[in-house]
Write a structure and sequence with these properties.
Layout (H helix, E strand, L loop, with lengths): L13 E7 L13 E8 L7 E4 L8 E6 L2 E6 H14 L8 E2 L1 H4 L5 H7 L3 H7 L2 E5 L7 H13 L9 H4 L5 E4 L1
Parallel strand pairs: 2-4, 3-6, 3-7, 7-8
Antiparallel strand pairs: 1-2, 4-5
Length: 175
């Protein structure tokens, strides 16, 4: 399988979304991450979830399948995608997602320059933002304690964070 090749976005308010391919539709790939992309316009107000995570070491990457090619993403995003795909393969319905490493052609400076100003709208218009804190570590308990403390104040992990980032969305934490 060769490298995935992006097609150019058709308009200034276009961006890409991805969905996971069901595991049963990819018997030769085992349980690898496999996605397909579609192009949408902000003005269409599509339904999707935005992924928020740290990239991690840009030299430490793993491959995912994108349509008929492969794309390298950081190991941190790969771990997030594996967790999310596992959950999504057990759920009903088709869900679309946005993650910058997948949905923006990182090798095309012109596209990156066009997409970065749209990111505020992309997050703002998302149905929810899913936050990846990373794989469980000894320090994850500290993060969990902070989140639980926030919950005792009457704020749960699905509370709109419109004051914090200027939009109404839901945030869910993954670990």
């Amino acid at each position: 399988m060769g490298s995935f090749e992006y097609t150019h976005l058709r308009s200034g308010d276009s961006f890409r979304l991805f969905k996971f391919l069901p595991w049963e539709s990819q018997p030769d790939r085992g349980r690898d991450v496999a996605v397909s992309l579609t192009e949408v316009r902000i003005s269409e107000k599509p339904t999707y979830r935005a992924l928020s995570y740290t990239w991690g070491d840009l030299k430490d990457t793993l491959s995912i399948s994108v349509e008929n090619g492969s794309l390298h993403v950081t190991t941190n995003l790969h771990a997030f995608l594996r967790q999310l795909q596992s959950r999504e393969n057990k759920s009903d319905g088709e869900k679309w997602f946005w993650a910058d490493q997948i949905c923006i052609n990182q090798h095309d400076t012109s596209e990156r320059n066009q997409q970065v100003p749209l990111m505020g709208d992309i997050y703002r218009l998302s149905q929810e933002s899913l936050v990846w804190l990373g794989k469980t570590t000894e320090h994850m308990q500290d993060v969990t304690t902070v989140i639980q403390s926030i919950e005792t104040l009457g704020i749960d992990s699905r509370t709109p964070v419109s004051e914090a980032i200027g939009k109404a969305t839901e945030v869910n934490f993954f670990n």
